[in-house]
Amino acid sequence: MAEDILGQALLDYQNGKYTEDILTYSSLDEEDIIPLPYLFRGFEKMPPLEQKALKLCKGEVLDIGCGAGNHSLYLQEKGYNITALDSSKGAIEVCTKRGLNKTVISAILDFDKKKYDTLLLLMNGIGLAGTLNQLKDFLLHLKSILKPEGHILLDSSDIIYMYDADDDGGYWVPNDGSYYGEVEFTMQYKGEKGQPFEWLYLDFNTLQRAASDTGFLCELVSEGHHYDYLAKLAPK
To answer: Smallest Cα–Cα separation from 65: which of 2, 147, 167, 153?
Structure first.
């Protein structure tokens, strides 16, 4: 199970074996819980940013890092040609059990089968880039599977609020040469820990600069209530 912590947890919930949630440990010295019922939420329980993103989808859609398939299921029910992609075998098994017609087990960087009108990266899907240094290559790969008139919809958060503020309104961020939005996570489920993985949270200005450098126009679609935002990227 340690190789697919998320997938096993999703399968347990899908199969009526829900007894506990996923624990996460991060390099920010924080322990948190991912409630499994939240990972199976319907459209009405999604945050407004996610609802907005789903309404902006067009054409053929690739749901990257689909998890239990909530976003894909909504789009499929609305008649979209939607493909759900995740590197977790368990997650994709859950998606199939829930009725999704098109699924792919793959890391996004290993996927280059075709081009799409919409690439969907929700629940901070841009985090899959891992680090700021890897962001450019990540965006260029997304561009390679995006149709010329297509767009990318993604949400993220500026986690600067997690650092101590000074009297001048600035923040005390560790001066170790890394971007403050780079976080290392470890998941634990039913006593087993998975391998640590890198995850990236982006402030909008940093995303906008990276998008411009890789040939995208970057639009701030809407902002949430707590440093989160929805962005749309389209090829220049």
So the answer is: 153
Q: Is the pLDDT of residue 177 over 80?
A: no
Q: Structural domain boundaries of the chain? A: 5-235
**Structurally, what CATH architecture does the domain formed by 5-235 represent?**
3-Layer(aba) Sandwich (3.40)
Q: Retrieve residue 196's tokens.
A: 């640590």
Say how far apart CA 172 and CA 225 lie, in whole Å: 23
Between CA 20 and CA 36 the distance in angstroms is: 8
Residue 169: alpha-carbon gap to chain centroid: 30
SS3 label, residue 219: strand
Structure tokens at 149: 């008139």
C-alpha 12/C-alpha 8 separation (Å) is 6
Say if residue 164's pLDDT is above 80.
no
Predicted TM-score of the model (pTM): 0.93
pLDDT, tens digit, 9 for 90 and up, residues 89-108: 999 999 999 999 999 999 99
